[in-house]
Amino acid sequence: MNHIGNIIKKLRMDAGISRNVLSKDICSEKYLYLIERGDRSPSAEIIRLLSYRLGTDLFNYYEY
């Protein structure tokens, strides 16, 4: 099963957005990298902000 980081990375790459651009004013680029690798779990607030920037609701993909 895909973790949320895989989904974020796929959506980011499909949109042609760099990690730096996606993470700006949300979290550090390094933290986003760790989320995408599955080494960190993002908070609900970070998921909400990334959702807005990616133009999709990441909560639809998130496993609780």
List the helices and strands and how they pair.
Blueprint: H1 4-15, H2 19-23, H3 29-37, H4 44-54
Helix pairs in contact: 1-3
Sum this structure up briefly.
By secondary structure, the protein is mainly α. 58% of the residues lie in helices and 0% in strands.
Q: Can you describe this structure?
A:
- The chain has 64 residues and is mostly helical.
- 58% of the residues lie in helices and 0% in strands.
- It is built from four helices and no strands.
- It has helices spanning 4-15, 19-23, 29-37, 44-54.
- Helix 1 packs across helix 3 (29-37).
- The longest helix is centred in the N-terminal third of the chain and has 12 residues, at 4-15.
- It is globular.
- The model has no long low-confidence stretch (mean pLDDT 93).
Q: State the end-to-end distance.
A: 13 Å
The gyration radius over C-alpha positions equals 10 Å
* Assembly of the depicted chains: single chain
Number of strands: 0
Shape: globular
**Helical element count?**
4
Helix/strand-derived class?
A: mainly alpha
Return the string of H and E elements. HHHH
Q: Can you give the mean pLDDT?
A: 93
Beta-strand portion reads under 5%
